[in-house]
Amino acid sequence: MKHQLYVFVLLCFTLSSCSQKTYTRLLREQTVTTSEETPYFLPKHVLKLELTYTLNEPRVLKNGIDLALTSSSTKITIEDPIIVTPILVADTSKTFIASGKALPESVFFNPDEKTNGQEKILRIPSTKMKAYNGLPSASLTDSSIEVEAYSAVLELMENIDKISNKDEADMALKLISFYKSQFTLLNENFKPYLKKSKLKYTVIIDPTALYSEEGRWSNIAGNKMYHTIFPKHIFKGKGNLSEQLTFEFSQPEPSERPQFINEQPIEGIVYRTPAEANFKFAVETVFEEFRDLELAQFGASKTISIKALEKGEDMPVVLFKSEDVEKNRNFETKVEALDFDSAKIMEISQEEIKREYEEKLKFIGLLIKKVQARKAEL
What we know:
Layout: H1 2-19, E1 22-26, E2 38-62, E3 65-68, E4 75-77, E5 82-100, E6 122-124, H2 126-133, H3 137-141, H4 144-158, H5 166-181, E7 190-205, E8 212-213, E9 216-221, E10 224-229, E11 240-241, E12 245-250, E13 266-267, E14 269-276, E15 278-283, E16 286-290, E17 294-304, H6 306-310, E18 320-321, E19 334-338, H7 342-377
């Protein structure tokens, strides 16, 4: 009788001890959970990219009448900061099952808190964008003839020392005079300007996912993943978009990113610690590195006991309930027109275009003098 009582007390003690602990296992396919088990997911980050495109429509005030400058096409540039916002969502690639002592609500992501899960916002400043793809205002209103003519002028300036006799010098002077005649005379009756408008394009990317769709695609080279953003389809009939934006992420080595793969129950809960991403950004092929971006899925998977959690140990534990997965934010791509003071920009562009034209004509005048000086030497 004493032996049976001892076994009963030991069993009660064991059950009581187990009820004070939490165990985690991976959910296998074609298995079911009980009402006493809690499914949960680890977090990952997706990136919300906010790109503001500027449409530069060349127009002209001709004898007081506002007309489209049909000799030039509308060019699309990026002149505003690019906003990169990390957003925490559930990583549904693996489902974890917790049993035993219930998980505290404090470890679960709250989808009703608007700022919950948004980490440091990265801004790629407008100064960098203009350095990458900024174009002089005059080049946006130049006709194709003017562009070719000025390119020829620049080439002549670089090759003055190759003029070997007076006949070649005379030919060069005639060509320069011809090129100069191709530039439209700017006066009170002919004032080209740029009519600007802005479109904001918002798209969500998962740095570890592969895309192949209109406006964005991905590819892998070695341990690097590239995401290219090129939404020319949203500008159909509106203008020419030429610059591609590319985001490069270096994938952590497997040894640097251990994953929880044990399908047998273990004590505690599984969580992730975010890791710094080796992130680069490029317009066309000019890459620049940024180091202040952390991504949960690039970090390590670790375990922590319920006892440690209850002691208030400072652990960055964030989990997702299965019922909250469908409550993730609406991640559809968006295109929206932005309010813009086009009248003020019109005046500024007129002044810039006039100044740039005057500088070009001054440069052509300098070239004429140099060729004349070269002719005198021969």
